[in-house]
Specification:
Length: 379
């Protein structure tokens, strides 16, 4: 058929196919294989998906079962959070466990941890069954900032990591070691420091990627101002750090009591649980990204104090997704204040929810492993 149709028309036809069908098409002929695996086609496919008004809005859900099995699925962004498909998780080890650092453009970033040490990272596209295994050059304790995101200027996926080795994190001589992994370069490199960084966090793997910047809730130590909370950001394109001031009432709140979430794919929000006669979430939304004066407070009352304090997982539309102390996932409407049980359960404190976009990312990477080994495992 390719002998009779212009390449532009062939591309338009292929763009309309589901991801798994496109992968199958790579085995039909050499011409299609070269076309679909080309960086240009993959990039165009991604941009068309992002700009399309009729593509499916999906969420990645990660659960951890009582049998210590990792369960991944894609969910529809509808009222009942219905399942779209199960994802085969090939990475298993009896001595390690995994943290989801984030998801961006169909690529999931995982950290493999053994005895509180991060031994490797993984970039994984489950729809095309390809992954890249990344060994860090710095073997550090869990005390570190880790963030994953996309550099749109270079069309590159990057992993930033800051590691401290001492408990006295704010000593002058105790500067963090910083390294950046680039998927395009296939290697780590050090990030130079123009000034000493005095940051600490209790949320080692918790971050929010938005507008080309990965964000964390952090303590900032200053000789004159003391220690206070800020939103620390790292721009993936310019490779520089930035700060966003929080509402003054959050200055001295323990970072582990705060959850930083993406809000409507356009800005950030910070959730703080409050419990007196009932459990409430105080949700500070930055209505205009980067404008400190635009922080706006929303309140969600979730129930009686005796039910325990839920953990904020994410925001979709006008709903806050939460994990109850028992492991059940519920959704709270920020307008009606109604809380609904989504009838989804996972081992407490292991659940991850984040937006997901189907893509062909990694299909063109020579350092990516296609399929899984004979045991379906990565040791």
């Amino acid at each position: 058929m390719s002998d009779f149709l212009p390449e532009d028309l062939i591309q338009e036809i292929l763009f309309k196919l589901p991801i798994k069908s496109l992968v199958r098409c790579t085995s039909l002929c050499r011409t299609w294989n070269s076309l679909i695996k080309s960086p240009t086609f993959i990039s165009k496919h991604l941009q068309r998906t992002i700009s399309s008004t009729d593509h499916q809005s999906l969420f990645l859900l990660r659960l951890y079962s009582k049998e210590r099995e990792e369960q991944y699925s894609l969910r529809h962004d509808n009222q009942d959070f219905n399942e779209h498909m199960q994802l085969h998780f090939p990475f298993k080890s009896f001595k390690s466990y995994f943290h989801v650092i984030g998801s961006c453009n169909g690529l999931i970033c995982l950290a493999k941890v053994i005895q509180r040490f991060t031994v490797s990272f993984i970039f994984w596209n489950p729809l095309i069954q390809k992954y890249v295994n990344i060994e860090p050059t710095i073997l550090g304790h869990l005390y570190s900032f880790v963030g994953f995101g996309y550099d749109s200027r270079a069309n590159d996926y990057k992993l930033i990591r800051m590691v401290n080795f001492q408990k006295s994190k704010f000593l002058i001589e105790n500067f963090p070691k910083m390294e950046l992994y680039s998927l395009n370069e296939g290697s780590w490199r050090s990030i130079p420091q123009t000034a000493p960084l005095r940051y600490d966090t209790d949320q080692h793997f918790s971050s929010a990627f938005l507008n080309g910047v990965v964000h964390w809730i952090a303590n900032r130590a200053d000789q004159h101002e003391g220690i206070h909370n800020v939103v620390l950001g790292f721009d993936m394109s310019d490779e520089i750090f930035l700060e966003i001031a929080l509402p003054s009432c959050l200055d001295n709140v323990r970072p582990s009591c705060l959850s930083l979430l993406v809000y409507k794919e356009s800005s950030i929000s910070v959730c703080q649980a409050s419990f007196l006669s009932s459990v409430q979430f105080h949700i500070w939304v930055m209505k205009e990204y980067g404008v400190v004066e635009s922080w706006t407070k929303l309140v969600l009352t979730t129930g009686a104090q005796g039910e325990g304090i839920p953990r904020a997982l994410g925001i979709r539309k006008e709903e806050l997704l939460m994990e109850k102390k028992s492991g059940w996932i519920v959704s709270g409407d920020l307008e009606s204040q109604q809380v609904r049980d989504l009838r989804i359960w996972g081992e407490p404190f292991h659940t991850f929810i984040g937006s997901y976009l189907e893509s062909l990312v990694l299909l063109d990477k020579s350092n990516a492993i296609y399929g899984y080994n004979s045991n379906g495992l990565v040791e």
